Sequence to fold (377 residues):
Amino acid sequence: MNVLRIGLFTECYRPIQNGIVASIDALASALRALGHEVICVTPRVPGYRERADGVLRVHSLPLPTRTKYRLTFPLFQNDRILRALKGTSIVHTHSPFVTGWMGARYAKRMRVPLVFTYHTQLEEYAHYVPFERGATRKAATRLTRAYANGADVVIVPTPAMEERLRDLGVRTRIAVVPSGIDVALFAGGRRSDDLRARLGVAPGVKMVLSVGRLAREKNIELALEAFARLNDRAAQLVVIGDGPHRAALERVAARLGVAERTTFAREFAREALPDAYKSADAFVFTSASETQGLVLVEALAANLPVVAVDTPQTRDVLAGAGTLVAPEAGALAAGLRRSLAANGSRAGTLGVAERYDGSALGDRVLEVYASLLGAVN
Fold:
């Protein structure tokens, strides 16, 4: 294949840390390693200085909610963006919002294929919009359907999400390609007594780990309720991540009587996460709003036993390598109790994680691109 020039358009990017950003970085890295050119078009963030080449920051506006996310403001930037995108072979968007529609407009203008990766079940985020919940969910569904049907191909990370989009009325071609991570990075973490101590985990105490943005849709309350039912003074819950729901979760921990046995560790730099996974004894995952759940793959790569709420997409990712339970505190507590009693049995999880290695998945995305470019040529 000839060298491609790929424009990635995303609303969500650094300095934000989450699964979408990690997956976009993994894709860009894999494509560049294969010899292709990548430019990422994303909102400018006041006070943030870009540390990498291949990123085009465009003017942006803050959202009218308590969030770090921003919306691009593409007016009066056409010439600058077009110069940066000159020679682009394909446009690959990662959001159906303003940046995604901007990418779609430039794909049409440059007469190149449009690929859309479906990262987010928007209807599960209706609580962020100050309107009636049902109407907001319907609007989110219509937005997803309209945007996806305007793409040449939609990439989804799990078969469950292909079924979900079909149920929403998406009729365009769908390709299942998981979001990837650097599996070797997370497999190479080291168990650290010093790190455990900094996280409030005393010697001889089991560490239950949760990683992710602290937001209502992540359902961390369920993890706290299950941990309270675990009723094990020889266990410490460590929650890595930050977000708008942190203060509320701290109040829940206090109400449940587990505040002293719960550490809210805020965000970790990505390069520090492998040691955190390796230093834990079990991983708890309670979100039902994910399209994949990249932290599940990170935990698997670290050979960390996973206890997760059972959803179709989580079932797809774990492929039998974790413990799936009903979305109830008692069931989750029982799953954690069994996992901790197994005393760190971790066999087989790395093999599952290797299916999500970013470099191999880069090849699969290129196959999608090639199928479109062949149709165009």
About this structure: The longest strand covers residues 37-43. Residues 5-180+357-376 form a domain with the Rossmann fold fold (CATH 3.40.50.2000). The chain has two domains: 5-180+357-376, 183-355.
